Amino acid sequence: MSQPDTPTILELLRAAVRETSSLSEAIKQFQALVWRGDDWEVGLSPTIVDALRDLAYDLEYFEPSVPVRAEDPSFFGEERAIREILDVLARVDSSRG
Known about the structure:
Blueprint: H1 5-18, H2 23-36, H3 46-58, H4 66-71, H5 78-95
Helix pairs in contact: 1-2, 1-5, 2-3, 3-5
């Protein structure tokens, strides 16, 4: 399953910013795809692969619950998660010309 995963990863990110009600679930699915193997990397530059891996790691600190976020300053909410995702999507789009 080489090529099918690539659009799935990017579509998960696009869907996450379009429909914030499913942000948490989209992030979990995105992370699972990134961490389960290398097939999703096909057709992507090493720079974009690194950016997506970094995003998956950074999104570990996304916490939708305000009270839980208040317990640890390293956690962040929806607004920052969306900014992080949009930044990576912009890099992906600009790399494709």
